[in-house]
């Protein structure tokens, strides 16, 4: 199976599909939707076949491809996946067709949730396909320069989705998103370019003797500690903005409030994971000494994100902004697990990336269905919905309980691993992070009480329950949330070998003692 260019095909198919959509007449909206979802389903099936052939006990990076792209600068078209990248690609290809199905609404022409009045349905679905290609590429890239290209390429479809298909303040939200992302991207570009002359240095000076951007080769360099700290900051700030972490998180609530909910599933459910994925993959393995140097500060900001995001979520009056702030809190947990530098913490953080994508995706889809019916995202415009739309309310409850990490649902396992892994090394950070669990119960249950419980407000009288299409869109996510809550082992089986290899590399390149005195238990050494 490794002889077939799986990853190149997975990246190319959505792009080809987006181009072919241009030849379909604009007025044939049903055909546009059928074709787009058909392409996304083919991509999902191919990714599933690829995942079935992945050997978790084999080589770390599999399905690798490497071709010269810009030979003069040492840039390759190089792709491959380990367990971490594979599960994030699967998350992407599962969510895209479900988002398209959820966006398949007859409200398109009357200011609906995903495609406002007089907006091109064809362009919207083409942008979703282009975004899917960029998401697969960014997780598959094993050349650091190629990773940067995909990292920036994701901005283009997202900018147009927010700016053209968003709410009343869509232009402001789109520009703010773009400026924040470009600022971080420019810092990372400087760091990426800096790697080339460093790798060109002789081996005796810590280089490789040749200029390259290949991740595996760069990870072997012995970079001067001061230089490594600057490079680490260039990458980390870009990833912290994308994640998003406090205090560079403010673009997310505005983008969430103005984005169409379908696209928002991908922005928060997948795109933001690029930030935490980058921290785990590039910051830790390319700059292990600098990562350990920055760990106390990063953990402090992670805890701050957990508590600050949760408190602000409690005070929100807009459903989409509320879920956006919960995501700031959840990403704090993910960063906490990554920089705890333990196998439990990093496995939990990676699993959290996947589980958060599904739980938040389900919440945004259900909120989108509510907005289609009520034409409002304000919490005060709802009340007593469970009396008129019990299936919608039940789905909302399960997705919400997953967001607060209820035992038996998927996020509980990942959050538990993060807290245990953090507490074993940094008791102060683990203890403070637990307050986020308590605050999560407040903002989720209070949101449900205000929207679904209580007396019916006049505006929800006659609100329709989920139809067959909407059930098909959200049911697979709910099934995954429940299944992974009871049986997360298949995903952990893919994740754990890559996490252990990351910790081994960090320890090998920066062999300072583990602060607990129990290195082997924490997985920092083989």
From TrEMBL:
Q: Which UniProt keywords apply?
A: Membrane, Oxidoreductase, Transmembrane, Transmembrane helix
EC assignment: the record states 1.6.5.11
Q: Name one GO molecular function term.
A: NADH dehydrogenase (ubiquinone) activity
Q: What is this protein called?
A: NADH-quinone oxidoreductase subunit M
Domain NADH:quinone oxidoreductase/Mrp antiporter transmembrane as annotated: residue spans: 141-439
User: What is this enzyme's class at the first EC digit?
Assistant: oxidoreductase
State the membrane topology: Multi-pass membrane protein
Family, per entry: Belongs to the complex I subunit 4 family.
Is Cytoplasm included in the keywords of this UniProt record?
Answer: no
């Amino acid at each position: 199976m490794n002889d077939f260019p799986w990853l190149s095909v997975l990246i190319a198919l959505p792009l080809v599909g987006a181009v072919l959509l241009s030849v379909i007449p604009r007025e044939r909206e049903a055909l546009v939707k059928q074709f787009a979802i058909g392409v996304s389903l083919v991509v999902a099936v191919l990714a599933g076949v690829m995942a079935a052939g992945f050997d978790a006990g084999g080589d770390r990076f599999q399905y690798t491809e490497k071709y010269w792209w810009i030979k003069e600068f040492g840039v390759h078209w190089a792709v491959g996946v380990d367990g971490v990248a594979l599960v994030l690609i699967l998350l992407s290809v599962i969510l895209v067709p479900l988002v398209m199905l959820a966006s398949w609404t007859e409200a398109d022409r009357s200011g609906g949730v995903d495609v406002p009045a007089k907006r091109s349905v064809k362009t919207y679905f083409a942008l979703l396909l282009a975004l899917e290609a960029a998401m697969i590429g960014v997780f598959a890239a094993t050349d650091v320069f190629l990773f940067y290209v995909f990292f920036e390429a994701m901005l283009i479809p997202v900018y147009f989705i927010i700016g053209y298909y968003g709410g009343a303040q869509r232009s402001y939200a789109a520009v703010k998103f773009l400026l924040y992302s470009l600022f971080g991207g420019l810092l990372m570009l400087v760091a990426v370019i800096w790697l080339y002359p460093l790798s060109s240095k002789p081996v005796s000076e810590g280089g490789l003797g040749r200029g390259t951007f290949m991740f595996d080769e760069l990870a072997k360099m012995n970079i001067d500690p001061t230089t490594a700290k600057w490079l680490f900051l260039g990458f980390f700030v870009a990833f912290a903005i994308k994640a998003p972490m406090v205090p560079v998180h403010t673009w997310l609530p505005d983008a969430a409030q103005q984005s169409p909910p379908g696209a928002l599933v991908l922005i928060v459910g997948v795109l933001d994971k690029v930030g935490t994925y980058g921290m785990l993959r590039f910051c830790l393995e390319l700059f292990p000494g600098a990562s350990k140097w920055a760990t106390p500060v990063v953990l402090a900001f992670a805890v701050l994100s957990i508590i600050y995001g949760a408190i602000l979520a409690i005070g929100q009056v807009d459903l989409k902004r509320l879920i956006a702030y919960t995501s700031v809190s959840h990403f704090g947990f993910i960063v906490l697990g990554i920089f705890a530098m333990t196998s439990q913490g990093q496995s939990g953080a990676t699993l959290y990336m996947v589980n958060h994508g599904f739980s938040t995706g389900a919440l945004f889809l259900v909120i989108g269905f509510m907005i289609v019916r009520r034409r409002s995202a304000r919490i005060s415009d709802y009340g007593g919905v469970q009396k008129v739309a019990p299936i919608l309310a039940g789905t909302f409850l399960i997705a919400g309980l997953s967001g607060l990490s209820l035992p038996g649902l998927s996020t509980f396992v990942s959050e538990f691993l993060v807290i245990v892994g953090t507490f074993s090394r940094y008791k102060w950070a683990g203890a403070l992070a637990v307050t986020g669990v308590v605050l999560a119960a407040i903002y989720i249950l209070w949101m449900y009480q205000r929207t679904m419980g209580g007396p019916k407000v006049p505006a929800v009288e006659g609100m329709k329950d989920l139809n067959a299409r909407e059930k098909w869109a959200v049911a697979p996510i709910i099934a995954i949330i429940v299944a992974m809550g009871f049986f997360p082992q298949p995903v952990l089986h893919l994740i754990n070998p890559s996490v252990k290899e990351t910790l081994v590399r960090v320890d090998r390149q920066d062999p300072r003692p583990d602060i607990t005195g129990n290195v082997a238990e924490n997985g920092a050494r083989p």
